């Protein structure tokens, strides 16, 4: 199947180039034939790249070890799900996966965008085709998954055990969906620049796309945390690793864009800034892929190094120049339509929200690149690890959290001091009460205390928004409170869906703050021995070692160590079993270093996280690391709330659309006839 | 070999699909302009480009903002006055346009009436296209 | 750390790291007979030493959290030795830290000793000195400057566009009314708003 795949890639190369040229020409000349061809090219690209992808998947499933990629990332005894996930488990495959997903998104964009934005579509096709062209080019010339070996190995090397985890099957595609879907709003932005149609049209056209890609990014990042938590075994979920940072950067700029775009929609301000933000998000998504794939900054994730990096650098450079030139030459069309009425207004709070989000992105980027900078400037290597990032970013993060609560309380355009007092009183009182309660309870960690206090303020502010909004509808329209609430959310989905997302963000922060109270202990226990650990909530957990059992399973040999747990003397659920896994190939020979499976008992308040580190002197005396991890579950809950809020915002149809449907009666009479009335002549001819 | 053929087939199909519009030169009509894609029935209200709807939405919003206590009465009054002016102006423009359209239609109908008035009719064969003739070209009777 | 504790540790070290020592929180009353051998010990990961109270010492953990493991994992020594049980570097670094603690060195002295041996890159975060201040301060400075500029422009703008507050007409909160407009205009607006609401 590799020949077919190879041919499909070369064909995709040609098609990408064709789509780019025809799209731009078609848009320029307004020639329907060219436009139709550009549109069809995106569909055909999706088809052709799918053919290539299917070829690779077939090779993986058939274990065709003559194909270098298949031999490097799979083995005969690898479970099928992981054979499939090997598609994006290695460099070459993941680049093809990028191209595949982008081509599907590009086709979807052409297919789903309402006809009223058709004037943008040829340019959109050109941009997406160009980006696809780039990825196919890298795949063909620098990291070809279809390359064959001069011989056929009897078995493949197998997939890295750390990637053999259900989280790893879904996490990378999710994150990729996020990264890749940014290309679509970016393509619309470039299309608007190219077509010089810089009114609200393109912003409306990408509304759903930006939110969808933001949600994918959020979910992808959170799934990455989950994978790290479950699989990497250090009991945490975020280590400020360069690859994690790379996924966080576009998330920050997309978040900034989601907010500042509202100002452009409402007031026609910040046009250039929004163009910059969406372009920055796209560039950062490419940069993230570059960091992951080039190994430019050493990182656990960057398991490969090749010439791919140069392609990415060239593409990044080209994109930056292109975007800068486009925005520069269109600057006069991107003039602001309004000025701020007041420094105390929602708009002003958005300015600061954007400042902090982009500032945070800058600080993360700065920290990620600082080792390189230091080496260039001083010739000394330094490490920039979690202590640095926490120190720099926690204050910014808390500032952002505070703005999450402050922003919605301030009115658009102008807010008077009296209004502010009325809006802020209740949330501030709530925050103060929480702060006092925390101090009374003996909480001494400053940042955690701040996170809880500000979180209380934000929740107070949002709840107040819902209550006042419901009240207002009740008074203005005489609806009963329940109906008023439903209509309130239903008719302002963006606003109230956004508030729900904010609640999700607060939950994340609370969960992050919980990390300050993590407690852990190491112990070597013989069967029957036990160790006590006191949790931050004041419980005393007793862990009793039951023993180590060894057995063969699937593609590995397992040594499982079990602990019985009691809490305050009472039994606490079933025993926890952590595993050491020695993966073997189909001949039973060990492959890879032994990996560790943590055992986790999830509870809402604190997780118990047990790792079997190994045995002493080859006996059942086991060495454990036991961690009590407060509030971690809330990270996953926060993500669910966030997705729910996003779904509320995105939910199609409903009253808004229905109202739109009825409107033609009102706007249908706008068919304008030219003043000279050509009908006179034509009509006369026909009629006479 | 089979794969090569399959690849070639994919290539041929792909090229056929993307080149077809150019070869056939479909609808080489006038260039597409934004006006061709004016708002359709499915445009959500907020995405409407109509100044009237935008102004009305702004009015509703400030009303809501005041009700939730985010806008002082002074600011509310000021903003309301300005949006009400905008809305009225936009309504006027729309009405004028509608009138123009109606007028245009009237003019068209007048033409039709005029043309109809000139048409001569044969008592047997009905209206005849030849308005200058005196007799029906079909049956030879005198036209009225 | 009390000197008694340190003395204890010295005695311990002399006894060797493999000495059987009860874990800090371990119940001393338990039976500590020998454990049964594993069926296939070579497949149960790298052999481990018994845990002594050095491994759980908050001071040592605190120091190790600031040191980077040299195995290329990007983790600090404590995290690496309690996570990546295949790493041979982290336990070695841990022993070095313990040895320095034994010599009664302060945290800063231990870190300095490591920097002297491995270079600055052994620290998890760049030391706050010289050019490294750029790493810590630049983001804050940039945010501060841009923030002040925005604030300044905003305040100036809002002063320039000083509001000309309209005559405050106290209307009861309720449906929009347009008292200042002509009756005709007002009804027209109301009708349009009504249509929008449907």
Give a written overview of the molecule:
- The complex is a heterotrimer of chains A (688), B (144) and C (198).
- Chain A has 688 residues and is an alpha+beta fold.
- Among the domains of chain A are: 1-159, no CATH class; 517-634, Tick-borne Encephalitis virus Glycoprotein, domain 1, CATH 2.60.98.
- In chain A, 63% of the residues lie in helices and 11% in strands.
- Chain A is built from 22 helices and ten strands.
- In chain A, the strands form two sheets. In chain A, strands 2, 3, 4, 5, 6 and 7 form a six-stranded antiparallel beta sheet that branches. Chain A has a four-stranded antiparallel beta sheet with strand order 1-10-9-8, with no helix packed on it.
- Mean pLDDT of chain A is 85; it is low at 298-304 and 654-688.
- Chain B is mainly alpha-helical.
- In chain B, 60% of the residues lie in helices and 4% in strands.
- Chain B has three helices and two strands.
- Chain B has helices at 2-24, 51-67, 73-118, and strands at residues 120-122, 126-128.
- In chain B, helix 2 (51-67) packs antiparallel against helix 3 (73-118).
- Chain C is an all-alpha fold and 198 residues long.
- Chain C contains seven helices and no strands.
- The longest helix of chain C has 29 residues, at 132-160.
- The model of chain C is unreliable at 1-30 and 164-175 (pLDDT under 50).
- Chains in contact: A-B, A-C, B-C.
């Amino acid at each position: 199947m590799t020949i077919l795949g190879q041919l499909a890639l070369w064909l995709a190369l040609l098609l990408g180039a064709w789509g780019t040229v025809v799209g731009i020409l078609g848009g320029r000349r307004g020639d329907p034939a060219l436009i139709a061809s550009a549109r069809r090219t995106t569909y055909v690209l999706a088809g052709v790249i799918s053919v290539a992808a299917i070829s690779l998947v077939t090779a993986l499933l058939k274990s065709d070890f003559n194909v270098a990629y298949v031999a490097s990332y799979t083995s005969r005894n690898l479970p099928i799900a992981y054979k499939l996930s090997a598609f994006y488990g290695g460099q070459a495959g993941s680049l093809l996966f990028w191209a595949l997903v982008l081509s599907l998104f590009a086709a979807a964009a052409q297919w789903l965008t309402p006809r009223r934005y058709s004037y943008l579509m040829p340019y959109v096709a050109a941009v997406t085709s160009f980006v696809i062209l780039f990825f196919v080019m890298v795949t063909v010339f620098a990291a070809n998954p279809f390359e064959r070996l001069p011989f056929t190995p009897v078995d493949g090397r197998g997939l890295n055990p750390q990637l053999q985890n259900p989280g790893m099957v879904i996490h990378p595609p999710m994150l990729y969906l996020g990264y890749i879907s940014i290309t679509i709003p970016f393509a619309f932005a470039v299309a608007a620049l190219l077509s010089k149609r810089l009114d609200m049209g393109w912003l409306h056209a990408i509304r759903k796309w930006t939110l969808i890609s933001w949600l994918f990014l959020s979910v992808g990042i959170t799934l990455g945390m989950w994978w790290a938590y479950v699989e990497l075994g250090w009991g945490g979920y975020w280590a400020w690793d360069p690859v994690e940072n790379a996924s966080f950067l576009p998330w920050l700029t997309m978040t900034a864009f989601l907010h500042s775009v509202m100002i452009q929609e409402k007031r026609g301000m910040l046009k250039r800034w929004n163009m910059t933000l969406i372009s920055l998000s796209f560039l950062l998504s490419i940069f993230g892929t570059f960091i992951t794939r080039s190994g430019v900054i050493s990182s656990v994730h960057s398991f490969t190094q090749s010439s791919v990096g140069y392609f990415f650098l060239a593409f990044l450079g080209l994109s930056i120049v292109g975007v800068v030139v486009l925005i520069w030459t269109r600057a006069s069309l991107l003039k602001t339509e309004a000025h701020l009425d007041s420094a105390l207004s929602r708009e002003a709070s958005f300015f600061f929200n954007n400042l902090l989000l982009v500032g945070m992105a800058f600080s993360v980027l700065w920290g990620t690149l600082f080792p390189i900078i230091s080496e260039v400037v001083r010739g000394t290597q330094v490490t920039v690890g979690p202590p640095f990032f926490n120190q720099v970013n926690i204050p910014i993060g808390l500032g952002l959290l505070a703005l999450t609560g402050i922003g919605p309380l301030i009115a658009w355009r102008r807010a008077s001091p009296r209004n502010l007092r009325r809006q802020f009183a209740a949330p501030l009182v709530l925050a103060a009460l929480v702060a006092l309660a925390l101090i009374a309870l003996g909480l001494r960690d400053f940042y955690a205390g701040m996170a809880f206090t500000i979180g209380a303020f934000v929740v107070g502010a949002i709840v107040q928004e819902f209550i006042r909004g419901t009240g207002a509808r009740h008074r203005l329209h005489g609806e009963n409170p329940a109906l008023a609430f439903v209509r309130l959310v239903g008719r302002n989905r963006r606003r109230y869906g956004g508030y729900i997302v904010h609640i999700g963000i607060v939950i994340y922060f609370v969960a992050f703050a919980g990390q300050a109270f993590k407690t852990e202990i190491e112990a070597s226990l013989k069967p029957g021995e036990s160790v006590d650990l006191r949790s931050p909530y004041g419980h005393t957990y007793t862990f009793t070692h039951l023993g180590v059992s060894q057995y063969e399973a699937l593609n590995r040999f397992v040594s499982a160590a079990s602990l019985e747990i009691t809490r305050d003397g009472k039994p606490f659920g079933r025993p926890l079993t952590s595993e050491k896994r020695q993966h073997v190939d189909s001949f039973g020979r060990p492959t890879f270093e032994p990996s560790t499976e943590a055992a986790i008992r999830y509870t809402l308040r604190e997780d118990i996280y047990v790792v079997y580190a190994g045995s002493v002197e080859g006996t059942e005396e086991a060495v454990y690391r036991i961690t009590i991890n407060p509030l971690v579950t809330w990270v996953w809950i926060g993500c669910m709330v966030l997705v729910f809020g996003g779904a509320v915002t995105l939910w199609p149809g409903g009253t808004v659309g229905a109202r739109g449907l009825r409107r033609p009666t009102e706007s249908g009479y706008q068919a304008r006839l030219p003043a000279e009335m050509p009908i006179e002549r034509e009509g006369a001819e026909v009629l006479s | 070999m089979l794969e090569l053929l399959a690849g070639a087939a994919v290539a041929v199909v792909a090229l056929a699909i993307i080149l077809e519009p150019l070869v056939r030169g479909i609808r080489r009509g006038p260039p597409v302009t934004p006006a061709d894609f004016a708002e359709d029935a499915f445009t959500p209200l907020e995405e409407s480009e109509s100044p009237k709807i935008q102004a009305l939405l702004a009015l509703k919003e400030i009303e809501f903002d005041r009700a939730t206590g985010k806008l002082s009465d002074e600011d509310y009054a000021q903003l309301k006055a300005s949006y009400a002016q905008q809305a009225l102006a936009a309504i006027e423009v729309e009405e004028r346009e509608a009138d123009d359209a109606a007028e245009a239609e009237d003019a068209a109908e007048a033409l039709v009436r005029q043309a109809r008035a000139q048409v001569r009719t044969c008592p047997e064969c009905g209206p005849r296209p030849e308005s200058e003739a005196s007799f029906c070209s079909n049956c030879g009777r005198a036209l009225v | 750390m009390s000197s008694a504790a340190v003395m204890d540790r010295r005695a311990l070290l002399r006894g060797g790291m493999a000495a059987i020592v009860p874990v800090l929180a371990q119940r001393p009353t338990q039976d500590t007979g020998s454990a049964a051998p594993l069926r296939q010990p070579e497949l149960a990961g790298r052999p481990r030493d018994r845990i002594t109270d050095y491994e759980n010492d908050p001071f040592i953990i605190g120091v190790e959290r600031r040191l980077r493991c040299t195995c290329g994992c990007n983790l600090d020594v404590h995290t690496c030795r309690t996570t990546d049980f295949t790493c041979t570097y982290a336990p070695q670094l841990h022993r070095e830290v313990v040895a320095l603690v034994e010599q009664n060195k302060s945290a800063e002295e231990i870190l300095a000793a490591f920097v002297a041996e491995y270079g600055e890159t052994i620290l998890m975060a760049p030391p706050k000195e010289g050019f490294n201040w750029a790493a810590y301060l630049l983001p804050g400075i940039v945010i501060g400057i841009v923030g002040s500029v925005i604030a300044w422009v905003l305040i100036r703008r809002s002063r320039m566009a000083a509001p000309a507050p309209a005559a405050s007409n106290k209307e009861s909160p309720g449906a929009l009314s347009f008292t200042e407009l002509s009756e005709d205009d007002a009804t027209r607006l109301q009708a349009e708003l009504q249509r929008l609401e449907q």
